[in-house]
Amino acid sequence: MESQIKAGQQADISVGIARDVFRNVRRAEADGRPILTQRARPFEDAARIFLILCAMLSIFTTIGILLVLGNESLLLFINEGLSLIEFLTGTEWRPQSGSFGILPLLSATIKTSVIAMLVATPLGLGAAIYLGEYAPQRLRAALKPILELLAGIPTVVYGYFAISFMTPLLRGLLNSPSFFNPNGTEILQFYNNVSPGIIMGIMIFPTIVSMSEDALSAVPRALREASYGLGATKFETIIRVILPAALSGIAAAIIVGLSRAVGETMIVALASGAGPNYDWNPFVFAETMTAHIARISSGDLSYGSVDYESLFSIGLTLFFLTLGLNILSRWITNKFREVYQ
Amino acid sequence: MSAVEVPNTQPIDGRLLAGAEFTRQLAARQRRGRLWARFFSLSTVVAVVALITLLLSIINDAFGFVISTYRVDPTTLAPDGNLELLSNEELAALLPERRLGAYLRDNLSVVPPTEFPSVPLGQALPGAILPPGVAEKTFAETTVEERRSILANNLNVDLLASLVELDVVSEDVRETYTLIESLFERDRIEREYEEKFGGASATDTVKYFRSWLSLDFITAPQASSPEVAGIRTAILGTVWIMAITVVFSFIVGVGAAIYLEEYATGNNPLERFIETNIRNLAGVPSIIYGLLGLAVFVRVLEGITQGRTILSASLTMGLLVLPVIIINAQEALRAVPSSLREASFGLGATRWQTILRTVLPSAMPGILTGTILAMSRAIGETAPLIVIGASTTIFVDPSSVVSKFTALPIQIYDWTRRPQDDFRSIAAAGILVLLVLLIGLNATAIILRQRIRRSLQS
Fold first, then answer.
1. Within-domain flag for A62
2. ipTM summary value
3. Does the beta-carbon distance from B47 to A150 stay under 8 Å?
4. Distance from C-alpha of A18 to C-alpha of B31, rounded to nearest angstrom
């Protein structure tokens, strides 16, 4: 790559530094001090220490998260005499009456995330293949900003879209009398997991597209041409040659998408319902882990109460879940990466 | 991985396909390819349709006909019903007598609401312009005229107008229609207006086209009724939070990136751990940062941050965007050619001088682009602010870093979750404002990015 700044600018900088250096040397000589390299540089050391501290802040953040989530969760487990088995397998979440089963919240998170992935994976992969393999250059250049725009929309706006557009649309389709539903019974409740799931899929879509497209474009030309040379059609080349070669990158994209779906808050907070509900049917209301944290903490929450501590135990579960997914995604990328010459 | 396998040429009877059989199969293979190509392009179309539907549904809710009832017709109070044309005194004279105490208490008093009636006004309203002799009186001892004159002299015309609008005119939006309904179903709207409200002959009811997104909406303070609520309070909250967040996260983020790119040797386990850690932090859900902020900034550091304040929110947001800023700044620093550094070292500059005078200036456009993009992510973040305790019942503009606050996305969230149509409409108007802010930020980033590209080419 060529230099990033213009030659003139470069010269300016160099001249500036040279001037400083000579000025320092002259001053040192005049004062009879040791020059340049022999001099102690407290400022230089201070700058270095400041920079190290900046870099360490990220470690402090991680320690802070673990400490805060762990400490409050531990308090909950000790104060309530709760066992880990009870916490992970209990089917009722009612902190006020001492039931702390994460399953109602976890099941809703799983439902919405699975629906989101069912929407985002085929569409995202399809769009990535289209953009990477089929689309003409100019169309590609026009479509990319649209995807960036979709990726940049705040999730609270998606939440608005879910509750003011997708939910009424789906309720209109499913609840009105039709071939599948002759009596027009209410199949889909107003708060449900399908509508936020679908919208979450649209939210994750750009992530999957851009990560999969990177993976597809990393497959070397030689593989493609070898496949064409053997008489394969374009589609066969994509399905049998390029996709398998890019599989690790695509898997990583899907897992990153899943981790975003699990941690997403605003869409589910608005559209999934206002209470935990242990029911694997996605058509009824059920609050997810993130939605529950958002709702409980938006009320008056007193420090050290059961409600307060229970939020952190949900947070800890969520943290490990997303951390696990992110580590898995990086492990897949590193382990199965095809290295081409 | 054995990636390459020869497609669809399984030998039949030990031979490759040939002749008519081959042609037929080839045609079928190509048909299948075309079918799938259509599916691939369709998935792209879905994305475009989703974006367009999203924007249209927001615009659809933000504009449209409303049918309102008034307690007092505003056109009888001011020319064209425009209350802001009246003077402070005229507006104060319109305010209902029984609410005067509440106005003073809510908008001017600095003492706790329960003590307000028993404290002399000079003490309850320090710094306020009071009529002679009123400072020693408690509220109950003042006359109605004195109360009105305190309000007229100490509140600005916008606030007085919005109080008149709220409690005197008291518009109540009874029916809202979407933009599509307003354009294509005018007959139905007219019919409903006639049947339910008596149509144009009714004196207390009007039907008019309301743009929920308006200058009034942007400049009016937050209020609990959707007819007069504005987003000034929320926008100011967002601006305060973003300003502190950007200062904090820029300094720390760029510092961390400089350390990792310019000082780190690359084979130190601590440095590798920091790198991995930053990438993991980037994947932590934002609501978890909210819990961190709640426990650390709001609770443990309450002495410094004063609890659920702008400062707590900004520090939490700062930690949230830090990984993004570090990763972007690292990339920008990596793009600075090493010949520049070597030239600087060769001239005898120290490492810090090299960084400050040579590396940072040429990496700055890239770093700024990354920072702006990180800010555009932060500006729409809602979940951490909810957890930290942004309040939706804040009606006063934030005045310092330790003010309690509301923010634009918080307000949108609060309005969206209410069932009434008119709240849905102001939520849509709020979203439009948020999206305009976002597009502005992103456009700045794109222009910066193009500048870099141009200077790279020259």
1. no
2. 0.84
3. yes
4. 70
- Dump pLDDT digits (tens) for B43-69: 999 888 999 999 999 999 888 888 877
Q: How large a percentage of chain B has pLDDT more than 70?
A: 93
Looking at the structure, tell me whether residues A26 and A164 fall in a common domain.
no
Contact A134 B41 (CB under 8 A): yes
**Which of A148, A298, A305, A329 is the best mutation test for B, with the most CBs of B within 10 A?**
A298
Domain CATH code at residue A124: 1.10.3720.10
Residue A77 located in a structural domain = no
- B336–A235 C-beta distance less than 8 A: no
Residue B161 has pLDDT above 90, yes or no: no
Confidence of residue B333 (pLDDT cuts 50, 70, 90): very high
Q: Tell me the chain A residues in contact with residue B381 when contact means C-beta distances shorter than 8 Å.
A: 154
pLDDT in tens, B377-402: 899 899 999 998 877 677 777 877 78
Chain B residue with CA closest to A313: the answer is B291
Considering the domain architecture, whether residues A98 and A222 belong to the same structural domain is answered as yes
| Statement to judge: residues A124 and A201 lie in one domain | yes
Residues lower than pLDDT 50 in chain A = 1-3, 341
Q: pLDDT value at position B98?
A: 81
Q: Look at residue A293 and tell me if it is in a domain.
A: yes
How many domains does the structure of chain A reveal? 2
Q: What's the per-residue H, E or C state across A201-262?
A: HHHHHHHHHHHHHHHHHCCCHHHHHHHHHCCCCHHHHHHHHHHHHCHHHHHHHHHHHHHHHH
Domain that holds residue A8: 1-39
Q: Do B285 and A264 touch (CB under 8 A)?
A: yes
Q: Are residues A11 and A159 in the same domain?
A: no
Residue type, A214: D
How many interchain CB pairs under 8 A, A with B?
Answer: 328
Same domain for A219 and A301, yes or no, is yes
Closest residue in B to A61 (Cα–Cα): B319
CA pair distance A80, A163, nearest whole angstrom: 37
SS (H, E, C) B130-189: CCCCCCCCEHHHCCHHHHHHHHHHHCCHHHHHHHHHHHHHCCEEEEECCHHHHHHCHHHH
**Same structural domain for residues A14 and A145?**
no
By C-alpha distance, the chain B residue nearest A222 is B4
